[in-house]
Amino acid sequence: MTLKGKVALVTGGSRGAGRGIALELARKGAFVYITGRTTEASGIEHSKRSIDNVLREIKAEGGSGSAIRCDHTKDQETEAVIRQIASEQGKLDILVNNVWGGNDLPIEQKSFWELPTAHWDNMFNAGVRAQLITNYYAIPLMREAKAGGLIIHTTFWDHYKYLGNFYYDLSKNTLVRMAYGLSNELKEDNIAVIPLTPGWMRTEAVLESMNTDEEHWHEVEELQMTESTTYIGRAAAALAADPKVMSITGQPQQVAKLAEKYGFTDIDGRTVPAFLV
């Protein structure tokens, strides 16, 4: 499985699923553009979790890529990213829409009328709309090459079960439907559009909330069924390398099921089962 010669863009790539996907695409040979708001020069909390650090990791492993600071809630910055990729590469083969601003408030299991309406701005403006606008500017470049391609929306989906929080359920399922709509519009271009859902990932935020780290998570009982962010990265890389990926375009895919299909494991050798609601 190789992605040599492919150009990828991973939005929201400074941490979590974005970091895991960016690293794995680069390991398979793709040139990976990483976008995010956090840079080493930003001077904000957690600046060590920056797009600069991810790029350093990629290059330390012999991969290639570029880090571009971008706030995807600002359309002109998103457009500038695509212009830069077009200027430098002339094409875009893989787009991973991972940017998400929906965790700024606790995602509580309360009734809709008890939830703050600020969830809408966080999840739809900094999540759904940000991914839509990235598609808007990126798709013409992907179509131009007439070589097919892959668009991934990272989301959460469990066979359309209700996810417990009204805004979270609505936004995550909107991303699934967005992928379905685009999959129909892009069939003739041979561009697959896949909503990709992980299980419970050991993101930096999850590890911090449990007062542990990646080296010691095994000691925390509640984390026994979690998966690393590399797991979703391996799923994304497998989809990108699959010559028959168009056969599942528009269909939500769970990382755990793709592990069974493509024969990859998590970093500790486990095939972590799908997270179910």
TrEMBL record:
- Any matching Pfam family: adh_short
Q: Report the domain of life of the source organism.
A: Bacteria
What PANTHER family does the entry give? DEHYDROGENASE/REDUCTASE SDR FAMILY MEMBER 1, DEHYDROGENASE_REDUCTASE SDR FAMILY MEMBER 1
Protein name in UniProt: Oxidoreductase
Write down the species.
Answer: Paenibacillus odorifer
